[in-house]
Description:
By secondary structure, the protein is of the alpha/beta class. The chain is about 40% helix and about 15% strand. The relative contact order is 0.17. The structure holds pyridoxal-5'-phosphate. Pyridoxal-5'-phosphate (PLP) binds next to helix 6.
Amino acid sequence: MAVNxxxxxxxxxxxxxxxxxxPSGIRKFFDLLxxxxxxxxxxxxxxxxxxxxxxxxxxxxxxxxxxxxxxxNSGIPELRELTAKHLKEKYGVxxxxxxxxxxxxxxxxxxxxxxxxxxxxxxxxxxTDPHYVxxxxxxxxxxxxxxxxxxxxxxxxxxxGKDIEEKITGKTKAILIGYPSxxxxxxxxxxxxxxxxxxxxxxxxxxxxxxIYARLTYGVEHTCYASLPGVKENTILLGGFSKAYxxxxxxxxxxxxxxxxxxxxxKIHQYTIMSAPTPAQVAAIEALKTGEPNVLEMxxxxxxxxxxxxxxxxxxxxxxxxxxxxxxxxxSITCTGMTSEEFSEKLLMEEKVAVVPGSAFxxxxxxxxxxxYATSLQDIEEAxxxxxxxxxxxxx
Length: 396
Ligand SMILES: Cc1ncc(COP(=O)(O)O)c(C=O)c1O
């Protein structure tokens, strides 16, 4: 994105690596709607649920007991143990809670730490396009170079090992994957993940697997990349509590991986963060102990909304493939002849529905918009009525 005149004035004060970052295509958009009334938002990517009360209450009680100090840099031992148990029970992958798991301030911090721990200036990190907005920025902040592998609706936004292999150069350090995907909702089947594993092993690359939406799949199983045979020793698995337990504001996630890499990440974490928020760690313990019924209930509800919105989008003429995970629909808007930014801006101004332009997630997101369906069915229904009117008016 072009640096504007004001930014140019500041650029001497600001580091080159920060100046290289584009403003988030999502934030920019939300600044627009901040002062508008009556907007239905399919924009923000977070659950509309509050955190289940028994989870919040555990943290409240711990505060009442005065449990307000730093924790160990790696996180409360019980939380690391429960996280290891969760990964073993759900995906059959084993991590030592003492040295192979680090509790972080959300997957956001874990991503940043992973990049800073492994990327040298000029190293290349391969990722899909479209991808989650923070992926390329984290690589740039680590002074690496994001390298994009295009994906499309025709191939279900899945990526093949061979497509990744074509992008490998002498400078490639890592492959960053994120499934179920934000923004597309795609879930990677096991055979394709095996293909990526084979490529990573052949070229001795680290795979960073962002599995924050692992629990949110519909009718398909999530395969944990690290659970595939022979890949764990070169994998950094990222997971968190934000999405599955409706805990975005608590800021709690984790990284699991080989001891050497987790130790390097912990070194950065101890100087920059110290320890993840103590009340959030207590809440996460409660989530792992007793939150499963809540997760299942929310997944069932997201699934109802998913089916409703996908059918609704297709009915109004916005071709939408069936997302199998996360809580996003990613319909094509090419029938209107508009760019995704034009579409999103006009839709907001004329019909007061907020969606996110696909271009915010990379060049291959152009021609699509992201609609988050973690909102009430009633709002989704009204949003579809308004979008239907809009598409009818502009359809070519
Ligand atoms: C794919 C993906 N990874 C990571 C994050 C960050 O999550 P957290 O709240 O754990 O920092 C998000 C949040 O939207 C996401 O969609």
